[in-house]
Design brief:
By secondary structure, the protein is α/β, with parallel strands linked by helices. It has twelve helices and 15 strands. Strand 7 and strand 8 form a beta hairpin.
């Protein structure tokens, strides 16, 4: 499935809208799974017909995609529309963008429009609808804001990006900076931007805020921050194992019980929590989302200094029987 998504980015959303696989923003499969295996869990067995539909949808969307550099050159020439959710819009958007809704769609009827989302599929689907139903001439940011951050503006923080990135709790973002040997704690009162905490670890600067609104507006101030002049102090750290187990037990486990699932901490290694899903969650198609977004968000809220959260589950174990 990972290779299929790399070649046909629209496939995940199409599998949801046409066949009920996963959800609008939640993939119903893991990257290492095969399409036939995924479809069989949803009682869909004609793989060739599904592949044909996925390819047709991909071709529909490809005609509207524009590389990030070309998209940047067109900014200001047409209405700019954000196809993400209102919650994602609050994290920050491209200057001048409006959230796609019924009113905006009516206003741009017959016009050229510039569309984007997080990675591309939602904007691609919107482009097909606007072109076929409303006579619009859409251009879609190929790869979404993740590609924008990688190819146009590396200082633009996005959820899931490899450079400046917003963590799953949405209140913390990490920005690349010169490496440090040991973690350092900063003084938020002397930072030239609003934050409740800031620290340096490894090769990044972590900024924690009391809210998650408009990270891109803060980004230029963060990148202009004089790190060497700031009064840093050593940041003590512990193993965090007990705190991780407490969060898993009190915040995560109650939700997993409805799926007959369990979650445990397998180990803490180099500041990374390696968690293991069992019971009905072992082998689950949405395990990557559960760990990488839902569990990670809860852990970062409680332990902001965590270096990462990884899935250590044996999902392909012969005895794995996920609940559906």
């Amino acid at each position: 499935m990972g290779e299929l998504l790399a070649e046909w980015p629209s496939a995940g959303l199409t599998l949801f809208t046409r066949y009920g696989v996963g959800g609008r923003e939640k993939l119903g499969f893991r990257p290492e799974q095969r399409l036939r295996q995924v479809l069989s869990r949803y009682l869909v067995f004609d793989v060739e017909a599904v592949l044909k539909r996925l390819w047709e949808t991909e071709l529909e969307q490809r005609q509207f995609r524009t590389p990030p550099t070309g998209f940047a050159e067109r900014l200001g020439s047409a209405p700019l529309i954000d196809c993400r959710s209102p919650e994602e819009l609050k994290l920050g958007t491209l200057p001048g963008a409006r959230l796609l809704d019924a009113q905006v769609a009516a206003e741009v009827r017959g016009q050229e429009v510039l569309l984007f989302d997080q990675r591309g599929p939602m904007a691609g689907a919107a482009a097909v609808h606007l072109a076929t139903k409303l006579g619009c001439r859409p251009q879609v940011l190929d790869g979404g804001l993740v590609a924008w951050s990688a190819q146009v503006d590396p200082n633009y923080p996005v959820v899931g990006g490899d450079g400046s990135r917003i963590l799953p709790d949405w209140k913390q973002a990490r920005f690349a900076c010169p490496p440090v040997v040991e973690p350092l704690e900063g003084d938020p009162s002397q930072a030239p931007f609003e934050c409740v905490r800031l620290w340096r670890s490894r090769d990044y600067l972590a900024v924690l805020r009391s809210h998650s609104d408009n990270w891109p507006a803060l980004s230029p101030l963060i990148h202009a921050f004089d790190l060497e002049a700031h009064p840093w102090r050593p940041q003590p750290r512990s193993d965090w194992s007990d705190r991780v187990r407490e969060v898993l037990e009190k915040e995560i486990q109650p939700d997993l019980q409805s799926h007959k699932g369990v979650v445990t901490l397998r180990e803490m290694r180099d500041g990374v929590a390696h968690v293991e899903l069992g019971g009905g969650c072992q082998g689950c198609s949405s395990a990557a989302i559960t760990v990488g977004q839902e569990i990670a968000a809860a852990l970062y809220r409680s332990i902001p200094e965590l270096e990462g959260v990884e899935d250590a589950s044996a999902h392909e174990h012969p005895e794995a029987q996920p609940h559906h």
